[in-house]
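Sync notes, pocket subgroup
Present: LS, DG
LS reminded everyone that the earlier model was apo-only. Rerun requested with zinc ion included. Inputs:
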Amino acid sequence: MNKALMDRLCDQVSVTEMMRHLEVFARRMKYSGTPEELESFLYLQEEMRRYGYRTTLLSHDAYISLPGDAHVEVQGQNLACITHSFSRSSPPNGLRGKLVHVGKGRVEDFAGLDVAGKIVLAEGLATPAVSMLASRAGALGQLHASPDEHLHEMIVSPVWGSPTHETVANLPDTVVCTISGADGARLRDRLAAGETIEANLSAKVDTGWRKTPLLVAELPGSGASEDDDEQPFVLLSGHHDTWHYGLMDNGAANATMLEVARICARERKLWAHGLRVAFWSGHSHGRYSGSSWYADAYWDDLNRRCLAHVNVDSTGGVGNTDLTHAMTSSELIGVARLAIREQGGGELQGRRLGRGGDQSFFGIGIPAMYGGVGEQPPGTPMHGKFPHPLGWWWHTPGDTLDKIDPEILVRDTRIYVHTIWQLLSVAVPPLDFAENARRLVAELETLSGALAERFDLSGLLRRTRDLHSNAETLRRRLADPLSSAAVEEARGALLAVSRALVPIEYSRGDRFEQDPALMQPAFPPLQPLRELCKLQAEEDAAKFLSVSAMRACNRIGLALDTANSALEKCLSRLDAEPSLAAE
Ligand SMILES: [Zn+2]
């Protein structure tokens, strides 16, 4: 990588240019599928066109839920509140029920409680996990006590993207409202003292199919024509819909995307691949309906050509100085570490990508990185209370222009320029699958130890160790100069390895479905084996789990074999062509 060129590119990040975009974004609230949002998309399209990109403004059906008015009344007293995207609407006079405190609303908190026909009082953000448990337990409503004094907008659907005929039944059945942390604590204390409390929840939520926009802007890499539909590309994406004015989330991120696109386009002659920039709707009010639809509608194109997905969210927030926890998949951690070290001056510890943030492409098998990059450092009020501490204004009307720190916006954008340039300018994408193999070996060793004689994982372990060795060998070979044929070979192999391994590390392994928007451990297909460790072999439940566990092993085994054979074929071709090294 050419360090002088990289510095020159990063130095071009212009705060003036980004603040100009932010002033436009500050004019409109961008709720999914509304005319104001569409107007704002037209601005993005015009800017991307000015930077030389070919743009397509798509429109598609999406199942969108926009929260309206809400009232919470407890024994004659009205509490400040909001309702949430995908809450049920209440009957016109509200929904009355007895309150039952369910702590943080985890599985163990619901255990042993009868909440049927009642309203649960849960501490913390209104998440899909709590909605699912409350709905299944037959609760009528959910009252959430905010982790702080602010009312944070949330989406409570566990269904990823627009529901299918099969998943529509998983939408929440409850009316969901949030009150302040202090109001929630008072109710909790009264319940703990043995008082019976009735609450009345009233909520209007506009849920239904709407047309939503989706902007795709692209430029082919050097040597490819405008209509080349074979050349691989890097996907840079972020949502454009917002809660309220959403200047950090996601106005600043959209300004970052425009700026990265502008700067990179100037050196297009050096691109080894194309760049595709996508702005989604339906992130906040459709549970990633835009990116999820795009994954379905362009499945074949993405499967054949997309090398990596870089997501941009909530850049530039005041006080978001901590860069140690940026999220990335393991094969891209080296790219993230270098960008953050050189442009942010921080040392990345890394964090596994969660089930959020328009990461709709794990099933296809596209390596992914980032949501945002910076967050509030330890010791600040949000730390420990929010999954991503991004400042108190996150998902509130307070997310306005004054929450953007121009210096942090420039720092974050430099990190994104550095990241995209690492991916765009190198012919063989820097995907290091040795790290995935290391993680899978560690998982399998733990399970193998715990299941001992009951379940033989030695075959999977051997194939995973082979994967590690193959990936390491390829990495060493790629340090040598390569002919264009060898480059093609290596790039194709890494694409095949991605398609095999990303789905088993980040999804249950179905390449066409979306897993629910609920927390998932690494290598989700291994879950039956993890559950099996907790049971005695003779129990019926253990035998049921063993059926799933065998299937899980087959799924993982096939993925490992596919990855290993792609790598071995590539290595033997490289070995068979010694002239390549000299060309
Ligand atoms: Zn966001």
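DG: The chain has three domains: 3-30+220-425, 67-207, 434-582.
LS: Residues 540-576 form the longest helix (37 residues).
Action: DG to write up.
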